[in-house]
Amino acid sequence: MGLRRLAAAALLALAAGLGACSSVAPGEAVELRAARLIEAGAEREIALPDAWESGAPGRSGSVRYRLDLPDAALRAPQSAVFVPRVGNAYRIAINGQLLLAVGPSAPRDGELPLLLPLPQALLQAAANRLEIEVSGESRREAGLSPVWVGPLTELSARHAALSRNQVFGAWVVSSAATVMGALALLLAWRTRRSLYACFGAASLLWAWRVSGMQLGGADGAWAAIGTVIFHASYAWFALLMTLYALAAVGRDSLLARRLLVAWAVIALLLSAGAWTFSAPLLRTLVLAGTLLNVLWLLIVLASAAWRERTPAALMLGAVAAIAVAVGARDFWVFRVLGDYGALTWSRYTILLLLAVLAWLLVDEFTRSTTALRALNADLQERVAQKERELQGVFDGRREHEREQAVLAERDRILREMHDGLGGRLVAAMALTSQVERQSLPPPGGAPRSVDEPLRDLKLTLDDCLVELRLALDSLETDQRPLIEALAELRFRVEPSLRAAGVRLVWQVDDAASEVELPAAETLHVLRIVREALTNVIKHAQATVVWLKLESAGEQGLLLSVVDNGLQQRTSDEQETMPLFVPATLVHGGRGLANMQRRAAALSARLESGPHAEGWAVTLQLSARPAA
Amino acid sequence: MLKVYLVEDDPLVSQHVRDALDEAPGIRCVGHANRLGIARVELPQCRPDVLLSDLGLPDGDGTELIGELSHAPAIDGVWHPHILVFSVFGDEARVIQAIEAGADGYFLKGCTADELVRAVEQAARGESPISPAIARHLLKRFRDEGFTDSSFRDSGFVDSDGGATGVMDIEAPSKRDHEVSKREHEVLRLVAQGYVGEEIAERLLTTPRAVAIAVRNVYRKLQLGQRARATEQAHARPGWA
């Protein structure tokens, strides 16, 4: 209290000095910093600004301020009065004539600067007196700022400047805070991060506070609640921003949060107390506590900035420092000096905060985009790597399959060579032994004829060539119609048939001429046909043999070798054959068994037996999907 | 008397062939060479009717000799032998090369004496032996070179009255003389399917001789096509003409 009295004394002295100055500067506007306060019939000298909250906290009602206007200030053709701040409701009179009445319907109208031109008719040559009747309620910041009087032109400029500051500044701060607050809340909702919620709530709170919008009506409980919340909102804004800043620099802790929530409740209680008990000191405590809150935040941020030097900590620390300085100035001006007409600076600190948030958001967005891009590149690289590995595995498997196919094919060729060519060569060797034996005269006898074994030998060697040719043909990669393979077989065996006096009649169904079989199956068919033809040469004593290839149903084939040998053949004949006789020379027994084996490999049905004119071998190839 | 000259480096085979030929009435083997060099010297003197040549010889490929004989101007305007090449088991690519160079056909090594004599007599008559494998290769070849069914000339023999038409065909090749006629294509197709001359003649309502001449025409066209390509290549090279 002593401090306040001291400040009031200093103000009084200053006002007296200024008043003295104004008298020696004619024609210019002067600021009146002293008035006579008329309250309940009593009249006393008072210094302006006069804030009821500090001067008379319990006052509720009307008082009258009487100001003597210096003559020098009224010499301009048009004079005016400029009141930066007056409220809550007021009436203004000059020389006893009422000029203007405002309120009390809009209590905050008094917050707006007032410019009042003075009608020349009402002015006297000297000793003009201005009376301002102010009606106010306790706890609602009523009061009167210093009053300016002078030429209208000069005061218009002052009024415009102040209006710009009060109205336009508030409007800008309020809109910016609203937009960023909404944005931050949206961000909080989408990212589920509470720090943005704190920022958004603080911004919107500040926007409401700066806009000066009422919560409810001018009177009653709503007005009280609005005022209490308005007072507490300053502390709440600071603590919400503190929460945000702590989270932004990673200094967030449960204890800090609990302390701040407790402080929020205390601030509300203090504000409510200030209202209830008309005790401005409680409100001053709220403001001081807020200042301490921001000061503590500044220390935390400074330490974070010192240790980590992150942009967030540095920038928020700088803003906190500015906020502390500005807050301290406002605290001094409003709470200590009780300057009713002063302008708040704290209002604009939020602009810095908004800029910091915007910068941090952009920074984070850029960073996460870059990180995402790096991640994508990394993922792509990994996918490409996996693809390469997979390709390698596929290539390996394909190579393996190819090797398997080559091995299987080699096995097949080896088997064919062994069974076919090998068997024939063994038979040829057996025949040469037979020739050798027969050419030697047996003891006491003449040498037997070797014609027949030699003929067999030649046939067998011919067979070897045919076998070799068949084996080589089966290596061909492109498929060819079965009939073309049979054609080549005919070309090979026809000389032998002709030599044996057998005519071969070729009967191919046109529909059957297109049928194709895989190389291995073609080889089986060729062997069966050759076996049948060899049997005709060896045993049938036929003159004609018919080879018929007919199509039977869908893709089915009927192949038959029919002779006119008219001889019933039995398997007994093999007893007359020499030892080591090749399979093909035994028409029944093994020869037939071989044919059956090959037919089974083809999933075909083979029939061999007599018919009306001779012997018939038929091969029924079942239908198969086209290769 | 048919004069035959033999180029073969295997003594066993050449002995077998000489014996078989000398035993046949009306055929005489007038010479035998086991090197291309010897054959080059002796052939103009012997002037055989039929030349039997192996392909793989110690001093070169028989195809070279065949090419030289076919491209050289006929000596005294009349002598030009019918040429048959040996093959062990129808290595068709080489045989077709030999035919392109000017051979009239081939026969299998190791065939019987009768078969051999038959082949020589056929060749002397102007017929060309063919096998299903050769026919198949020729069909594939003409197809690969862009001959389509529609481009086969619809000419060749038109009636089955003897071989007169066929002979006319030989003596008066048309402008598009290396394209195969539709009929020749049909003959090749039937050969590839295993039919022999008589059967083909029966199916196409013509004579076996006409069929044989069709085959010979195909061979001639193969040779002409080869020569046309060689000429084109020569023209394409600067400094040659």
What features would you highlight for this structure?
heterodimer, A: about 625 residues, Jelly Rolls, 13 helices, 18 strands, B: about 240 residues, alpha/beta, Rossmann fold, two-stranded antiparallel sheet
Q: Rough shape of chain A?
A: rod-shaped
Q: What would you call the structural class of chain B?
A: alpha/beta
Binned strand content of chain A: 15-25%
Order of helices and strands of chain B: EHEHEEEHEHEHHHHHH
Q: Give the N-terminus to C-terminus distance of chain B in angstroms.
A: 42 Å
Largest sheet of chain A: 6 strands, antiparallel
Radius of gyration of chain B: 18 Å
Instruction: Outline the biggest β-sheet of chain B.
Output: 5 strands, parallel
Number of separate domains of chain A: 3
How many DSSP helices of chain B?
10
Tell me the CATH superfamily of the largest domain in chain B.
Response regulator
Largest interface: A-B, 21 and 19 residues
Tell me the number of strands of chain B.
7
Q: Fraction of residues of chain B in helices?
A: 40-55%
Poorly predicted segments of chain A: 15-25, 568-589
Q: What is the first-to-last residue Cα distance of chain A?
A: 112 Å
The fold-level CATH name of the largest domain in chain B is: Rossmann fold
Number of strands of chain A: 18
Mean pLDDT of chain A: 81
| Main β-sheet, spatial strand arrangement of chain B | 2-1-3-6-7
Strand content of chain B: 5-15%
